[in-house]
Amino acid sequence: MTADILEERKKSIISSDFCCQGDGSGISCEKESVSGAVSQRACVYCGARVVLNPITDAFHIIHGPIGCSSYTWDIRGSLTSGSDVFRNSFSTDLKERDIIFGGTKILEAAVDEVVAKHGAKLIFVYATCIVGVIGDDIEAVCRAATEKYKILVIPVKAPGFSGTKSQGYKLACDAIMKVIAPAYDGSKIPGSINILGDYNLSGEMWIIEGYLKKIGIKVNATITGDASMQTLQTASKASLNIVQCAGSSTYLAKRMEEEWGIPFIKVSFFGVEDTSNSILRVAQAVGNEEVIAKAEELIQTESSGLQSFLDKYKPKLVGKKAAIYVGGGFKAISLIRQFNELGIETVVVGTQTGQKEDYDIIRQLSNSGTIIMDDANPSELETFMKEKKADILVGGVKERPLAYKLGIAFCDHNHERKHALAGYEGVRNFVEEINLSINSPVWDLLD
Amino acid sequence: MLDLTPKEITERKALRINPCKTCQPVGALYCALGVHKCMPHSHGSQGCVSYHRSVLARHFKEPAIATTSSFSEGACVFGGGSNVKTAVKNIFDIYDPDIIACHTTCLSETIGDDLNTYIQQMDIPTGKMVIHCNTPSYVGSHINGFFNMMAGFIEYLAEKADICNGKIGIFPGFVNPGDMREMKRIAELVKADYIMFPDTSGVMDAPITGRYSMYPKGGTKIADIKKLGAVRRIIALGEITEQEPCMVLKRKCNIESDIMPLPIGITNTDAYIMSLTRLTNAEVPYSLEEERGQIVDIMLDSSAHVFGKKAAIYGDPDTVLGIAALVLEMGMIPKYMLTGTPMDSFSKKAQVLLNKYGVADQCQVKAAGDLFELHQWIKNETVDILIGTTYGKQIAKAEDIPMVRAGFPVLDRHAHALQPIVGYKGALRLVEMILNAILDKQDRICADEDLEIVL
Question: How many CB atoms lie within 10 A of CB B66?
């Protein structure tokens, strides 16, 4: 097969029977996209914005022209049980004269306005591409405002060109540390944990929190799904961090380990196997025998409760083939396992920001013929999905219409998911969605 | 919902809250998708194009392709020349378009990249083309991006000729493919030999086939854009959106234009048809007269339900002006007219329209506004219906106001991009949506004894 794959791209695709790095030398990842590619990827700013956005009572001021603010306005589907301030879009909407004369005055005034008129207690100020170029000193503005108002005004220097989306995740984690640190007093709440890297899409954080409460584990801070400044500031009191989205939050977990000695474990609440394992591991890490017993009981009840459900759907799904194209490597790994549970073989796996160790695990989990790619573009996805005869694609907004055009079913596992996909409830929703899309009667009309 | 918004309106000097516009490049990208076998290219960092493609995919529920120069820090220091040259080579090698349409971003504008020079230095395969336009995100809105890209195509491609080719050029404005189809259908009914540019029908509303085509069947052909330089006249729909492209075409090829409102509502549709028939000398066919009669009939039948009702209309300038015209024809009052696009001509044209109906003193108009302010206006004096983009839905929920979605972007509904709001058919559709929204709310909140079967 001589698919139209750019030379530069071949290093980012693993395949044993096609053109690319089938020689075992590993995948090329964590790099910027090739110029001219129809990349599905976003930028540094996007990475920082998506991680911080769900903090419900924060004012997110985007310093730059209007685009960066409007494209990220209320798109995440993170649910809140408190304030809905974060669902508004705040920006400095820079104009031509600001580019010439500098935008710091505008930014100062914007910060003054959110404090004076809206009583802001926590403000994130994002520097976009252009601010990085014209050299506005947003750190100085934030420092001055912090002193003036005695509130937290935190700079997030995220010009889009300054790296990849993962770089943005790191910046967000650093910003979160700046929220937590002032409240650190050395005290602990024994046996309590923080949940990192869950954004409460469709209320998923609440599902996970619910399981942990049931088995007697106290959750301090949820980072950042349904978080508030007040809950974030309890984070340093936890005795364990559990990390759901490893791509965005492992760095934060490592920093909290360094600063406050909080150990962390990586978990995943996608699929029966991963959910059960994760609950048990959390219980073992922080709980006593009673907690562990409760965890085992919960796992037992929930998974056996799912059995008849899965038995009902499995015949409709066994033997189907799946393609996965998601943001981070850890989610891809969970999805492969989840598809395995359903008797669905994963034939194509790609991520936008997966890391080397993720790809190593993906290779171990996959069959030899499975295509593995980093930062895939639509034509590569198309080529390999067709070649491998995928029945369903799991991806995000840009992949949905592509899949449908190809006559392939689709499940959104990104911001636009319509149902919670985490935990045991999530397994039900996921299987129902997969089934609904693969077995939709509309496909019969296509010929 | 939106608990933050206070009723009291105070002046804001710096803060933009809940915008009613986005930046230039997405408009440029949408315009370029309306050219057959064209690859839109964003000269900036990779995040921009990812956002633009996402918002277009969300609005149209279609794949929206575009490439990027993928700026790194190095490109910002040394310029993006080598990025765009490598990009163009890669694009022709892999995606094989006939033409690449580059637009800039705030980043490449600010570092002073000169695409003109870069393009001249490129090794472009025979028969292929690269064009560009400047779309600094810190000027105007996506509407500017759209017309700047139109102007860019015209600058590069339109060919002046001594002999007129007899065709009529139609510039559709920033509208959905469903609107473009309706404009073309009307043009065909009055026997116009036309070129529509740009034309996203057949691209952003392409049917499912089981195959993915990067370049669907639709889009204005390059040869036709060249011919724009020798058409009889341009009928440019969208008084604000189409000024620039018409000016460029006049300057370059001395082509005259009728710049007129988007054909939304009866009067504006009449004007579009008259403008066409003046050139074709064709009779207006009975089928069109019948459509007109039908919609006017419905407007009369339903008048009692909407007469005097107040609407808040927000979105892109020409769209808001068009919808306001229809709303006035229905006997309603466009209490608030707001666009995020910073153009004074919007306010002037809105005032003219409102004066014509003698309601200017009851209405408030603003360009360069935002939805936070619109919400504040509504908190002070409410309206019976919201008409505009999806971003008004938070206000609709907070204030329990029925809402009709129209314009760009509509991110939370389906099929809207395939249906017109222009022409008599579009008027019929808008009137039906407005009536349904108002009557549905009335049925929902009225006392049981007031619920009527026949309305």
Answer: 25
CATH topology for B168-280?
A: Rossmann fold (3.40.50)
B15/A379 touch (CB, cutoff 8 Å), yes or no: no
Q: What are the structural domain ranges in chain B?
A: 24-139, 168-280, 300-450
Residues A141-196 have pLDDT tens digits of: 999 999 999 999 999 999 999 888 889 999 999 999 999 999 999 999 999 999 99
Of B17, B206, B394, the CB nearest to A90: B17
Q: Which residues in chain A (223-252) have CB-CB distances under 8 A to chain B?
A: none
C-beta atoms surrounding A274 within 10 Å: 21
Whether residue A431 contacts residue A317, with contact meaning beta carbons closer than 8 Å, is answered with yes
- Could you say which architecture CATH assigns to the domain B300-450? 3-Layer(aba) Sandwich (3.40)
Query: 3-class DSSP state for residue A186?
Result: coil
The pLDDT, as a whole number, for residue B453 is 94
Predicted TM-score of the model (pTM): 0.94
- Kindly determine whether residue B46 and residue A41, on different chains, have CB atoms separated by under 8 Å: yes
* Contact status of B376 with chain A (Cβ, < 8 Å): no
Amino acid at B62: E
Using CB atoms, pick whichever of A45, A92, A113 lies closest to residue B47: A45
For chain B, say whether A73 makes contact (Cβ under 8 Å).
yes
Partnered with residue A324 across adjacent β-strands are A349, A394
Q: What is the pLDDT of residues A47-103, one digit of tens each?
A: 999 999 999 999 999 999 999 999 999 887 899 999 999 999 999 999 999 999 999
Instruction: Domains for chain A: give ranges and CATH numbers.
Output: 44-183 (3.40.50.1980), 192-296 (3.40.50.1980), 318-416 (3.40.50.1980)
A-chain residue closest to B57, CA distance: A398
Q: B300-450: same fold as B24-139?
A: yes
Q: Is the CB of B209 inside 8 Å of chain A's CB atoms?
A: yes
CB contact under 8 A, A133 and B76: yes
Locus of tokens 């050395």: A186
Q: Does B83 lie at the interface with A, CB-CB under 8 angstroms?
A: yes
ipTM score assigned to the predicted complex? 0.95
Distances (CA, A) of A236 to A192, A200, A266: 10, 21, 18
User: Which CATH topology does B24-139 take?
Assistant: Rossmann fold (3.40.50)
Low pLDDT (below 70) residues in chain B = none
